[in-house]
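Dear colleagues,

As part of the handover before I leave the project, I'm documenting each prediction I ran so the next person doesn't have to rerun anything. This entry is a single chain, and its sequence is reproduced below.
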Amino acid sequence: MVQQELFQVIKPGIQTTFQDMGRTGYQQFGVPVSGAMDRFSLQVANILAGNKRTSPCLEITLVGPTLLAKTTMTIVITGANLSPTCNGEPIAMWKTVRIEEGDELVFGKHQSGVRAYLAVSGGFATPAYFGSSSVDGNSGFGKSLEIEDVIKGYPVMEKTGISVANTLIPIYQKKVKISLIEGPHTDYFTQADRTTFFTEPYKVGANSNRMGYRLEGQAIKPEKVKVWSDGIPFGGVQITSAGEPIILMADRQTTGGYPRIGTVSSTDIPKIAQLIPGGEVSFKRVSVEKAEEDARKQEQFLIRLKQFRQHIERGKKA
């Protein structure tokens, strides 16, 4: 495929970065995983666009960019509704859309969620760091978009109108209930504090970011504060010495020494990633078996969506 200029950045937005599924296999060496905060939305965008599920997309946070199309291409936007428009006209989300050279793609007023994902059929041309194009500025891997940047890629024209049924599109709420697998430091907390944690709501602090979501609410101080540092999973919930819960997210540190009361089920992480500052979160216990069942169901949905997409592609070639 021939590399072409896709977009010129007119306005970059507050945090617009390339993200994929993260750099796996290097956390043991102190390299953060990073990757998309909402991996479900990223994968759906890529599947609809006809790309590999793991391809990089633009992750667009709350205040999005203005992009000038430098060629004709097929795009897909998923995730948060940031009122995307093309030349002032609303663009359908969770659907393949054709835009022409010279069109202006604008992300405007926030409607719901936090992070939108933009895929281009054929994919973006992005530098890779340890096998991933995910930007992690804290680690020196890439940077956010800047004014007058030129985004390049390998555009291919795909059938427009390929979409996810409206009933299957996530609805991003300002109050969410999150499934949590308890452990590994359950015995560091009293039964009363564990009950508090699973019954009291928490608010997402304003200083939450891609590294972690700080939760404000009833403190639950661990009986033991010091633990052996160990690897931190995506969605791990640490409790600081002050009793503050922190949900560790995509750009989390590789290891941590605070006790963890549990880990968010992988299928519920997008709910956290799309929860606005000031949003409310509460937790419910879930077994490992139930979390695995939910993960299998989500994977089956993505596989079926990919098969549906391939069926349309075969029909186009027939």
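Residues 4-168 form one domain. The CA atoms of residues 191 and 197 lie 10 Å apart.

All the best with the project,
I.
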